[in-house]
Amino acid sequence: MLMFSKLRTSKRLGWRNCSAVASHCVFLRTGVYQRTLPITPCPVPEALTGCGQPAPMPLELCSEEARARCLEAADALLGGSATWFSHERHAVGSPPDWFLDPSSGKCFPDSAQHWSLCRPFAGADIKRCWELSRWGWAPLLARAWRFSGDGRYRDGLNAWSQSWCKANPVNGGTNWLCGQEASMRLLHALQAWQLCDAPSQLPEPTPQRAAFVAVHLQRIAATERYAQAQDNNHWTSEAAALFIGGSWLAAASSSHAAAGRRWATAGRRALERSLGRLVMADGSFAQHSLTYHRLLLDTLAQVELWRRWLDLERFSVGFVQRCRAATSWLAALVDPISGDGPNLGSNDGAFCYQLHSQSYRDFLPSLQLAAVLFYGQPVLPNGPWNEPLYWLALADGSAAGVSTTQPPTSAQDLQPPANGPVTLFPDGGYAVMRPSTATWALLRLPSYRFRPAHADPLHLDLWHQGVNLLRDGGSYAYNAPQVDLDYFPGIASHNTVQFDGSEPMPRLGRFLWGDWLQLEHSPLLKPGNAPSSSTDGSSITAAYRGPHGRHQRQVQVAASGNSWVITDNCSGFQQEMLLRWRLCPGDWRLEGASLMGSAATLTIRADQPIDRLELVMCWESLHYGSKTPLPVLEVSVTQAPVTITTSIELSS
Predict the structure, then answer these.
(1) Is the pLDDT of residue 49 over 90?
(2) Is 369 within the bounds of a domain?
(3) 481 and 579 share a domain?
């Protein structure tokens, strides 16, 4: 049975993609990459010089608090304390050991071993080795220098850059293993040079900088087909690096100009193809993940900025339309009060190209920048999320040269409706219910055109007054103990129904599910396209049938937004149906069939005897590599079919 599942899933992935992955594996095992990409010294970019006068700082765009946060983070780096995944701090020295996983104390293979011989999951977490080698510290130190004019930050940037290049010869060691990691490193380096030289203008094309860019592009281009086969952000990230780095070389470096033009052409072509395939018409991204969607938009923002700075030809109308649709999708799934959003899908801590000091789980800076670049005007008022606009000379919200052949759509179109019906994203499989600005919900529809990250059919996320009341478990870590690898992506970490203690799809690998689920029919909406200000509110009904049972869920909300009713009709299971409601941490108490807390009261009813109604403690992961306990209400029924109704009354 598992063999047939693998064959069916391979067909869904695409035979060309599977063939590209297989070819990559053959090249690894036969030494092709070792012969074609030999280990050579890494060019060391020229040291930054000058006094670095601080830039003017309009308080409404770039506050004293933002400046203080930036300098505090930069001081910690220079003091030898680095932060992983925006939350996990370790003392590692300055500069650090570039091959160390500080959590386990294990070092990954260094320059003595060709990258093609390195193994990413050999006993420790490769992401902890890669994190500092993405060079995210370079724009941070550059901002600190620009903020303060203190030469310590310039000298620290020089020292860390030189240390990395000397410790990481080209193609030697773990930090050259992944083309996407090389892409992020390259774009962060260019971003830092641009900030230090002259913001919103081209970095100076010094010989060693050009050589540094060229060797990175050579590495990225070598596995371009493998990146495309992933159908995820590897493709978009590497295409962006080829386009930006190649275009800069073509414009700035005579010795690498010809190669730069080739790389830029390949990158532009790959960007057009990747967005046409991976960003669907409704704005959903192939990777079912809020943090990966942000990475996509932040990468596209870099593409558009460098296109303007280099005065290059605009991308196609279709490309711009997908950029806009992806921006609107993010606007619909971000909580307007907290700036946070559902902990949807894979969450690997990626937080790249950030020119601000807002928290990792604040999506507003990315939304604002994307709106200015792709819609021509901001979607949010002035606030701390505007700092990137300041650094990029877009502080007034203008978008002269916006890459479109038609007038920019009003920014109002990006904003989630304050009072509107259910908003469907049918291509990606999402339904957003937003009865008021303070209360909204996301229903995850099992409609997979691309491989699902999590087993989350009909998961419900509920937000009220900036609090994620009913929440997703997240993904924790990619090299965790098996019990965590099973739990976080599995159905147990979602607000939905589990049948017979089984997953709704078979696990075929660390990042792959088989036999992808599909909806039985299109979701049923009420009142459809009518305004939701009607007295009976709105509802959505959807269903799927899996190998262990059938689940139909209806979500209803009153026009006020304070009352929600979730009806789960379940049949076909043999032993047990287990419904979970994963709650925000707080003082919850279970009294009979009602669960009461300061944020809401949940009441459970069923047309069959409830065998177990219990409040238990489980886990969630809001940041990569971190898990914290949270309360979960579990409802168990052993007789089928059964209808369970959950009524939720929200506190005002």
Answers:
(1) no
(2) no
(3) yes
Nearest Cα residue to 315 out of 347, 362, 275 = 275
Interval 278-298 mean pLDDT: 97
Looking at residue 124, its pLDDT comes to 78
The pTM of this model reads 0.93
Phi-psi region of 395 (alpha: psi -120 to 50; beta: other; left: phi over 0): alpha
One domain, residues 18 and 61: no
What pLDDT does 418 receive?
40
Between the alpha carbon of residue 554 and those of residues 23, 310, 443, 566, the distances in Å are 46, 51, 10, 6
* Judgement on whether residues 480 and 530 belong to the same structural domain of the protein: yes
Question: Domain containing 443 — which CATH number?
Answer: 2.70.98.70
Among residues 131, 162, 177, the one where a domain terminates is: 177
Cα four-point dihedral sign 286, 292, 298, 302: negative
**Looking at 159, 177, 195, which one is the last position of a domain?**
177
Pair 458, 542: CB distance under 8 Å: yes
Q: How many helices (H) and strands (E) does the chain have?
A: 17, 23
Q: Is 540 within the bounds of a domain?
A: yes
d(CA 586, CA 133): 38
Domain assignment present for residue 249? The answer is: no
With left for phi above 0 and alpha for psi between -120 and 50, is residue 466 left, alpha or beta? Answer: left
Taking only the tens place, the pLDDT of each residue in 443-484 is 999 988 888 999 999 999 999 999 999 999 999 998 889 999
Q: Do residues 135 and 184 make contact, with C-beta atoms less than 8 angstroms apart?
A: yes
